Amino acid sequence: MNEDSSLEDRIISVLKKIYDPEIPVDIYELGLIYDIQISRKKEVKILMTLTTYNCPVADILPIEVKEKIQSIKEINNVNVVLTFDPPWDRGFMSEEARLELGML
Fold first, then answer.
1. Fewest CB within 10 angstroms: 32, 53, 55, 70, which?
2. Could you tell me which InterPro entries the record lists for this protein (predicted)?
């Protein structure tokens, strides 16, 4: 396992502790994280979305993601980019999330 994959695993572990307040599933399993990029300088870019355009946590969830990822000591900078392209839908959810929500 190389250093970046280990760091990515730790980032994913942190993301799995952040929950959408309206849905009892973490944002990673919910499929809200589209991409995680880690540069050689240990700068992280998270491409994420929300369940809807007018999501009530649109102002706070990306900030929470940034702050919690930034708390990983090796990371020098975190940039969270919010996108709605493609728009989120239930197909992005993991099987675990669908099971948790009774959708399987």
1. 53
2. Fe-S_Maturation_MIP18, FSCA_dom_sf, MIP18-like
Q: Is 14 left (phi over 0), alpha (psi -120 to 50) or beta?
A: alpha
pTM over 0.85: yes
Which DSSP letter does residue 29 get? T
Sequence-separated (6 or more) residues with CB below 8 Å from residue 50? 32, 57, 58, 61, 82, 84, 88
Q: CA-to-CA distance for 95 and 104, rounded, in angstroms?
A: 8
Cα–Cα distance, 32 to 44 (Å, whole number): 16
Q: 49-82 b/e with 16+ CB inside 10 Å = b?
A: bbbeeebebeeebbeebbeebeeeeebeebebee
Positions in the chain whose pLDDT score sits under 50: none
Q: CA 33 to CA 92: how far, in whole Å?
A: 9
**Backbone φ/ψ region at 87: left (φ over 0), alpha (ψ -120 to 50), beta:** beta
What pLDDT score was predicted for residue 56?
A: 82
